Here is the input.
Amino acid sequence: MVLQFEKPAAGSWTEAFAGLGTEPLSYEDSISPEFYELEREAIFRRTWLNVGRVEQLPKRGSYFTKELAVCDTSVIVVRGSDDEIRAFHNICRHRGNKLVWQDDPNAEVQGTCRNFTCKYHAWQYGLDGELTFVQQEQEFFGLDKADYPLVQVACDVWEGFVFVNLDPNAGRDGAEGLHDFMGEMGEGLEGYPFGELTQVFDYRAEVGSNWKLFIDAFQEFYHAPVLHVKQNPPGVAAPLMQMGFEGMHYALHGPHRMVSTTGGTSERMPQEYVKPIDIAFRSGLFGPWDKPEGGAGPLTRGMNPAGHKTWGLDSFQFFPNFVILTWEGGWYLTYHYWPLAVDRHLFEGRLYFRPPKNASDRLAQELAAVTFKEYALQDGNTLEATQKMLKSRVVTEFPLCDQEVLCRHLHKVVHDEVAKFGGGA
Amino acid sequence: MTAMLPAGFDDLEPYADRWSLATEGERYAERLSSSMDDMEAFYAAAMARTDDAKAYLDGFPLDELPDDALALLHLLYSLICVSFAVECWKQPNVPDSGAAYLDLVKEPVP
Here is the structure.
């Protein structure tokens, strides 16, 4: 096979990155309940986690809640009367009731309010978390309302993405702030017009696999010509599988990682190789064929790092569970993987487009979204099958190829974080 | 019976009652419970009219579509939904997808 894209001087991407090794990988970290408990403490309770976007908080008093089952909590994220965005644990200081919820105590809610009132005994909190009203206050014993504010969670915003960090020391002097955490890979995306792409398709599923297995599935494209073969017309499926997949460029940035790959819409392909529905609505897996008015916009510094003219998309994997994909056509996609148990997680996939200017634009977006779902459904069930057999421990070592270098990196970072915290696998 | 679709789309009218569905969840459920024969007939009829339908719908601001135009747009969303069954899978559901699901919890309107 002829290489399409040049590899680093070390001979492979994997060997170019120090410390990754080339030996087979154990997936014990994806089936061990004990290791899962360590991950919760070492990673999810002390790392910046993306919980939403500023567009979800359009005005003062706008709020949303986010369930963080992996940390056994729920947080309220709210825009205060001073326009500051803050986050609090969603618990009333009086008797521990969940403060903000509707109908289903496990469901996430959003809305706008002037203050938060507990359903249980009507204790009231301001948007800044201060306790402002206690029902029959005179019945209490020397209670000073100033001593019972909501428990604040470190909260910060990067490029419109709202993050929280449950570590009580986060946000304090000496602790790593969000901007430092996002690091060089985050800086490379700064300036992308995230805030202008407000047309959102928001998908969710509970998946019967460890959270890392789905990240692995979407951070290598080695599987793409095989697992998704039927989504290609017969004429193109066989050559694609024979050609296989090669990433144009891989990069590691601290705990984060990215892959840049070729692609692009099938507009320029011989039309007999393109699905009729893609031709009818000028769209498909890589998004709408027609760029938004004014073009897809300039790339930011971190996009298409190889500077290749057949560039199609970049996949930026922010540790631990947040992924941004930027597409050549001027739209982006995010993934979040929220652990629920060692063998279960909540997957969120969101497509963000510019608001459509007419029905044709809207239909092109619909086709891109529906195509995403068809692909993800194939990926999702493969993961349940993998989880089930990994658990058998019949095989405990798995060879990973150079195109799976990012999977290797994720598992290494997870192990390093757990080890730093004092645990081990 | 009153027509659901705009004048000029009479040939799609027989499919409107079943496939003019406002949400992705309804469309996907209808696909899963439909026969391939039914979907192939709908697909063939609707694919023949996509250019006309887009041209007609593009004559309105997207957020001010009259009811019959909106019904036509929803019908095209269903066409997109069933196209995967017809063009790729030759069956209503995604192969090997088993019990996997993916719910669209928030979608643009229209």
